[in-house]
Design a protein that fits this description.
Elements: E1 5-11, H1 18-34, E2 39-41, H2 53-59, H3 67-79, E3 82-92, E4 95-103, E5 109-114, E6 120-122, E7 128-130, E8 135-136, E9 142-145, E10 150-153, H4 162-170, E11 173-177, H5 184-202, E12 205-208, E13 212-214, E14 220-222, E15 226-228, E16 234-237, E17 243-249, H6 252-260
Parallel strand pairs: 1-2, 2-3, 4-8, 10-11, 11-12
Antiparallel strand pairs: 1-17, 3-4, 4-5, 6-7, 9-10, 12-15, 13-14, 15-16
Helix pairs in contact: 1-3
């Protein structure tokens, strides 16, 4: 379980047309395969970025009929890769699941993860986000065993909640992921430092594909897909354009770093002060 492998992040600029997004993702995944990638990750909301709820709901499908998921399964099978759909918007009753999928080289779905933490916030620039109005939150942390290491699945806003990553690391994950659709404003301030912190504090690789640029619905995302090693070194980073990044992942580095700084072994759960009065 310590053999090195090649990982790739696909950086997209998904729009409102699912077929156009499928075409964009397919081209980039094939580019990653040509670069030698054995594990390929796409960003959050790969199949659609559409801030207009009614038109988004009209275009979405459930898991059984989602065309991007079907295409991703075919691509994984055809190219014998592990394909990690960072997330797809999947119709779930009258709401939407923000759901990640890990697909094996046989085209079978190995794992699913629904984003736990929903982004409900008012930003200083006037932007307002209420994911809970549209999306259902997940309830379970998920890890999946790849041939090289155990992978912990998270999505975007989850990256601000360190306990989730510590729990995944304690469950044996040497690779963590937070594929995203990060806004430019928050990305410029926090994207890199949050990813390096999650890698450093857990002695784990962080691999996160991102959306990038100005989308059809008007939102602007930060890009800068990143692959970071357990010491916090950036192995590969994108800019704000559509494309791919690739890096060699050596899982042996996880044990090496955790041996040098055994923070996981030293984790304690002390009694905390009582909550301060409002």
């Amino acid at each position: 379980m310590t053999t090195a492998f090649t990982a790739a992040c696909v950086q997209m600029r998904s729009g409102v047309d699912p077929q156009a997004n499928i075409d964009q993702a397919t081209r980039l995944i094939k580019e990653a395969v040509s670069a030698g990638a054995e594990y390929v990750q796409t960003p959050e909301m790969s199949n659609m970025v559409n801030g207009h709820r009614s038109s988004m709901m009209a275009a979405l499908r459930d898991e059984a009929s989602d065309p991007m998921l079907a295409q991703f399964r075919d691509l994984a099978r055809a190219h014998k890769i592990f394909l990690h759909a960072g997330s797809l918007a999947i119709k779930n009753g009258d709401k939407v699941a923000n759901r990640a999928f890990v697909i094996g080289p046989d085209g079978d779905i190995m794992a699913r993860y629904d984003k736990i933490h929903l982004f409900d916030v008012d930003l200083p620039n006037g932007e307002t986000w209420r994911e809970s109005n549209t999306y259902t939150g997940g309830q379970e942390a998920i890890a999946v065993d790849l041939p090289w290491a155990r992978l912990g699945l998270t999505i975007c806003y989850d990256v601000r909640f360190p306990y989730l990553y510590r729990g995944l690391a304690q469950a044996g994950c040497g690779i963590l992921s937070a594929p995203a659709c990060f806004t430019r404003q928050t990305g410029e301030a926090h994207w890199s430092v949050l990813h390096r912190a999650r890698a450093i504090e857990n002695g784990a690789f962080m691999i996160s594909a991102a959306q990038a640029g100005v989308h059809e619905d008007g939102r602007e995302t930060y890009g800068h897909s990143m692959i970071i090693d357990p010491w916090g070194r950036v192995l590969a980073e994108a800019d704000d354009q559509i494309g791919i990044i690739v890096a060699q992942i050596d899982p042996a580095k996880v044990s090496e770093v955790r041996g040098r700084i055994p923070a996981l072994k030293h984790t304690r759960n002390p009694k905390m002060p009582e909550t301060a009065p409002a």
